[in-house]
Design brief:
- The chain has 295 residues and is mainly beta.
- 1% of the residues lie in helices and 60% in strands.
- It contains one helix and 42 strands.
- The strands form three sheets. The protein has a 17-stranded parallel β-sheet that branches.
- It is globular, with a radius of gyration of 17 Å.
- The N and C termini lie far apart (47 Å).
Length: 295
């Protein structure tokens, strides 16, 4: 299928209020302005055992937009579903995710293998599974193996699984093997699992094994699990390299094997000391282990 890029809501289905099951979207090119998804633009009920292999892109100005390989915006449940196509967003506040651009409820047993990019004209949120995992939302038993990139003139949040893990949201039993790259002109947050882990949010039983890079004109935060941690990271680890770069002499670049900047709790979590961690300021609260110790 091929859709008109002038539509506000676009996908194989626009708004889903029932059950979508055992659906595959292939050889497609889905474009639109606001809520754009391979299977559904907006999911208000259930999507299960479904997949997308075509391209999904949201192109808009003077508005927010949500692009997801399965659903642009998920306010209910996505399970046992996947995306293998490219997902991109280009608008004022951009939310791009391999499974959902914005997750307000539940994603489980799902994965992304396509490239994800978010280019915000103000702020950007990009994640291998979801661009933003909203308040009390849950992502579990899922993974990403596609490259994730985010850029914005103000703040960029980019994560292997989630760009921004909101208050009291949960990420559990997750992993990422795709590269993560974030560029924000003011601030940039890049994490192997989450770019930003907010107050009350949790990352549990998760890991990253790929490269994480954050760059900013002023302050840059890069972490193997989370770029910035305000809450809890538990039973998680990172084996990938981490690099944080500031392009301004007055700026700062924070890097950590687990968290680039930590104001929360890190429990039973560690990183591989044989993988380089580069930045002006290295998080000393992160625990490291050698490759031999991790086996």
């Amino acid at each position: 299928i091929k859709t008109d890029d002038q539509k506000e809501v676009s996908g194989l289905f626009g708004v889903n209020r029932g059950t979508i099951k055992n659906i595959g979207v292939i050889n497609s090119e889905i474009k639109g302005k606001a809520y754009i998804g391979g299977v559904a633009g907006w999911n208000e009920a259930t999507i299960e055992n479904s997949y997308n292999t075509g391209s999904v892109s949201s192109i808009s100005h003077n508005s927010d937009s949500y692009a997801g390989g399965v659903a642009g915006y998920n306010s209910a449940k996505i399970e046992n579903s996947c995306n293998k196509g490219s997902v991109s967003g280009n608008n004022d506040n951009s939310f791009s995710g391999g499974v959902a651009g914005w997750n307000e409820a539940t994603i489980e047993n799902s994965y992304n293998a396509g490239s994800v990019s978010s280019n915000g004209q103000i702020d950007s949120h990009a994640g291998g599974v979801a661009g933003l995992n909203d308040i009390k939302a849950t992502i579990e038993n899922s993974y990403n193996k596609g490259p994730v990139t985010g850029s914005a003139p103000f703040i960029s949040y980019t994560g292997g699984v989630v760009g921004y893990n909101h208050r009291e949201a949960m990420i559990s039993n997750i992993y990422n093997t795709g590269s993560v790259s974030s560029n924000g002109q003011i601030d940039s947050h890049a994490g192997g699992v989450a770019g930003y882990n907010d107050v009350g949010a949790t990352i549990l039983n998760s890991y990253n094994s790929s490269l994480v890079i954050s760059s900013a004109k002023f302050d840059s935060y890069a972490g193997g699990v989370a770029g910035w941690n305000e809450s809890t990271i538990e039973n998680s680890y990172n084996t990938g390299s981490v690099s944080s770069i500031s392009g301004n002499d007055n700026g700062n670049s924070y890097a950590g094997g687990v968290a680039g900047w930590n104001r929360g709790k890190i429990k039973n979590s560690y990183y591989n000391t044989d993988s380089p961690i580069d930045g002006k300021t290295i998080c000393e609260k992160d625990e490291g282990k050698t490759t031999a110790e991790m086996k």
